Amino acid sequence: MAYELYYWPTIQGRGEFVRLAFEAAGADYVDVSRQDDGAAMEALMTQAATPSFAPPFVRLGGRIIGQVAAILAWLGPQLGLSPDGDSDRAWLNQIQLTLADLVVEAHDTHHPVDLTAYYDEQKPEAARRAEGFRQARIPKFLTWAETVLERNPNGPDWMVGDRPTYGDLSLFQVVEGLAYAFPQATARALATAPRVAAVRDRVAALPRIAAYLASDRRIPFNQDGIFRRYPELDG
Known about the structure:
Elements: E1 3-6, H1 15-25, E2 29-31, H2 33-36, H3 39-47, E3 57-60, E4 63-66, H4 68-79, H5 86-108, H6 123-150, H7 166-181, H8 183-191, H9 194-205, H10 207-213
Parallel strand pairs: 1-2
Antiparallel strand pairs: 1-3, 3-4
Helix pairs in contact: 1-4, 1-7, 1-10, 4-5, 5-6, 5-7, 6-8, 7-8, 7-9
């Protein structure tokens, strides 16, 4: 039985964190909305017995799980992308939730006032929000991730344990997203976070991930996703 992923068909967004887990594990999955332009996703959001507030969500048989951190906590043991032991799995979930906070803050640089309004309608506020994000928040998050790697008792190659987990895949994705949206600010932050940069490179070199990144299954970053490149917000 294949996993079914439901997410918007034209952006990476939050769905990409789940796609990366499926791809890294070589899992049998269907990116449903890329086949039906979101029709089944919209139906499940209104008709399912356990409706998700927003995509992404994953269905396997009669089970539907939403929210990225919850999805990955559920998938991790099934896909071999979680450590053994409840304590390490809880720690990995904490890491994922912290990275989710970073994703929200990155999104809010271009929508700081009204999520339903266009970026062009809130440019002054976006410039102010992005300045604080560049100067304080990107370095703070990446320094924290650097510390997590440094203090891993199994060595700094991976965030938890001695093999890649979904936390490393998610760290890769946020670094890639930040580098797309804020290339100058991210380069400065990575210069002081070499372990984070190394994990980004190490994940990209995983054979299944490398094949995925080179395929048309990987949707390019674009101006409709979470990470958007507005040159005036970088610097």
